[in-house]
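Priority: medium. Attachment 1 of 2:
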């Protein structure tokens, strides 16, 4: 029996090796233990794996990659609206991106505020939650994301002015409070 990580890694390699569009234009890939997202060039995000909280951003909680016709050209792109991603970051059941304007968005599990939308409602698990419906995270006036780190249930960013901002669960002391 394949572990979840082995299963996802084998699907990832299959897609990269056999799908020419992704193979020729893949900029970077990001994975956590349950799901994988790929950022290709021109900018497009495709995610697959387990989707218990909407972390694949498909407007449902259906697992992708375990059925015939889930992968390759059948795999839909994540609707990111008018925002163009430059990096992706994965947590246990949350996915985040930094945009070309150095803003950020997160979707998936929001139980502990990981999506920074002012509620614990998951994002990406129902229709009309992605694309331009998904708000940019409000970090404060003029704060642009230089780097991002996503854990199981928290998110931290470093701005270009070296400010650190974190949100989500702080039961283990990972969220920096200044």
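Attachment 2 of 2:
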């Amino acid at each position: 029996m394949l572990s979840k990580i082995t299963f996802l890694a084998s699907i990832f390699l299959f897609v990269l090796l056999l799908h020419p569009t992704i193979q020729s234009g893949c900029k970077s890939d990001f994975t956590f233990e349950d799901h994988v997202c790929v950022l290709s060039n021109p900018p497009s995000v495709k995610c697959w794996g387990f989707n218990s909280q909407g972390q694949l951003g498909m407007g449902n909680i259906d697992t992708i990659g375990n059925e015939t016709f889930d992968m390759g050209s059948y795999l839909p792109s994540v609707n990111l609206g008018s925002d163009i991603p430059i990096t992706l970051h994965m947590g246990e059941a949350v996915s985040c991106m930094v945009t070309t304007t150095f803003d950020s968005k997160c979707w998936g599990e929001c139980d502990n505020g990981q999506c920074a939308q002012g509620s614990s409602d998951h994002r990406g698990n129902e229709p009309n939650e992605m694309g331009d419906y998904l708000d940019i995270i409000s970090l404060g006036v003029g704060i642009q994301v230089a780097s991002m780190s996503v854990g199981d249930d928290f998110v931290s960013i470093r701005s270009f002015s070296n400010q650190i901002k974190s949100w989500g669960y702080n039961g283990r002391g990972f969220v920096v409070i200044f």
